[in-house]
């Protein structure tokens, strides 16, 4: 008897039918829900960015999947979230004309606990099909308070600005940069990163994430 390989749905964790195919990552019910409930169609802005986009709403089963992706070692979910995000970049490729894909960093302590940065896994998978370079450009300070603990927008903005800093020796002069994160919430972290990328010389900065909170105003 050979090994029985089972795959589970990224959104509801149910076992997928054996005949679903090697590439399948969702059960039919969740695939339908993605089409009907989870599409993010609203346009939104990030302070300082030239444009921003996200294909999915961070709510319900999608939000739960992002949490498993981040905190429960479901690194392979990066494939599914990147697959949702790639068409968004494809649509904008001629306008954005990216030279580089980069990502929001996580603190060193989190990196050692988790072993990966979910935004980096996404950025790599988003850059590769377009043969774009993907590189780290920013650091995260190890002991900054969590954004979710900040009460209001002003406090989150201040906290976000303190949390990030520039990696030495990177020149983004004249470059168009796509900044990838896993969720856009208030946008204060992305806005702080955009500001730093511009200080590094980037002429255009675009923000791309697989998910965005429906209101855009909470963590
Ligand atoms: Zn499912």
UniProtKB/TrEMBL annotation:
It comes from the Bacteria. The keyword Glycosyltransferase applies. Residues 121-214 form the Phosphoribosyltransferase domain. GO terms for molecular function: glycosyltransferase activity. Pfam families: Pribosyltran. InterPro entries: ComF/GntX_DNA_util-trans, PRTase-like, PRTase_dom. Belongs to the ComF/GntX family. This is Phosphoribosyltransferase family protein.
């Amino acid at each position: 008897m050979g090994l029985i390989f089972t795959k589970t749905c990224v959104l509801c964790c149910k076992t997928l039918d054996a005949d679903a195919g090697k590439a399948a990552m969702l059960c039919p019910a969740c695939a339908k829900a993605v089409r009907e409930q989870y599409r993010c169609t609203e346009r939104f802005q990030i302070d300082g960015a030239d444009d921003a986009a996200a294909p999915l709403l961070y709510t319900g089963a999608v939000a739960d999947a992002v949490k498993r992706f981040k905190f429960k070692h479901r690194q392979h979910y990066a494939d599914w979230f990147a697959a949702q995000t790639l068409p968004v970049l494809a649509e904008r490729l001629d306008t954005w004309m990216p030279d580089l894909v980069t990502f929001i960093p996580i603190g060193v302590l989190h990196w050692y606990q988790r072993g990966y940065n979910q935004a980096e896994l996404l950025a790599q998978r988003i850059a590769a099909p377009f043969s774009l370079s993907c590189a780290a450009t920013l650091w995260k300070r190890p002991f900054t308070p969590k954004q979710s603990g900040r009460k209001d927008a002003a406090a989150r903005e201040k906290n976000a600005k303190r949390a990030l800093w520039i990696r030495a020796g990177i020149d983004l002069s004249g470059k168009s940069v796509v900044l990838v994160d896993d969720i856009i919430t208030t946008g204060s972290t992305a806005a702080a990163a955009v500001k730093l990328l511009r200080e590094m010389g980037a002429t255009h900065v675009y923000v791309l994430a697989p998910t965005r909170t429906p209101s855009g105003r909470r963590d």
